[in-house]
Design a protein that fits this description.
214 residues, alpha+beta, six-stranded antiparallel beta sheet, 4 helices, 21% helix, globular
């Protein structure tokens, strides 16, 4: 039997709702993912001020911010977090308070959602030391589960099993409006074990996605 203490929070993402990639064949209204192959995560580190060659992209500034001043302020704050390892290149925040602040300050609208990603502690060893297990042993947050995913760490970010359409190998698989698995964690864990060695060169594991309360 799985107990809450068996799990740990990996990190937090500000996910931008997007159209579900057509090739997946999934009916999802507000698609999100821990994989930046499939989902935009904010802030986009390499589009921040001071980053070359992508920084100061006018389209990004016009689309996501009230103006250059707000964009520059966000860029300075996120660059400071990146410098101390509190946010990673794929947009994953390691501290809840940082993720909540950046979300509330710049991305708190109907286009985005702040989520946490959790998994069994035994799978933290698959993250190449990026996430220190001893720092992620807190009790799971009392926040709404919005679905499960199967993900794997690859150098600087996550792949989802959807990246290679591995979901097509399963019968009776069900997705919710977010494009996440609509089933209990144990079932998702079984699926992750069944696709070991397939698709991207990663170790697949089951993850829980939660909506972070603001």
């Amino acid at each position: 039997m799985t107990e809450p203490g068996d799990f740990a929070t990996i990190g937090y993402f500000i996910c931008k709702f997007s159209d579900c990639p057509h090739f997946l064949g999934i009916n999802a209204d507000r698609f999100i993912s821990a994989s930046d192959c499939l989902c935009d995560h904010e802030p986009k580190i390499f589009l921040c001020h001071g980053w070359q060659p992508g920084g100061d992209n006018q389209e990004y500034i016009n689309t996501c911010f009230l103006g250059k001043e707000e964009y520059n302020k966000m860029s300075e704050e996120i660059s400071e977090l990146f410098a101390v390892g509190a946010v990673l290149a794929n947009g994953m925040f390691l501290r809840k308070e940082d993720a909540k602040y950046i979300y509330k300050e710049y991305f708190c609208d109907e286009k985005h959602i702040l989520v946490s990603v959790s998994t069994k502690k035994e799978y933290l060893c698959l993250l190449d030391g990026v996430i220190a297990a001893e720092k992620n042993t807190e009790k799971l947050p009392d926040e709404k589960i919005i679905g499960n995913d199967i993900i794997g760490w690859d150098i600087s970010g996550f792949h989802s099993f959807l990246c290679n359409s591995l979901h097509e190998r399963f019968d009776g698989i069900c997705f919710n409006k977010y494009g996440l698995l609509d089933e209990d964690y144990g079932k998702t864990e079984e699926r992750a074990k069944r696709i070991a060695g397939l698709g991207e060169p990663v170790d697949w594991f089951a993850a829980i996605m939660r909506a972070v309360q603001i």
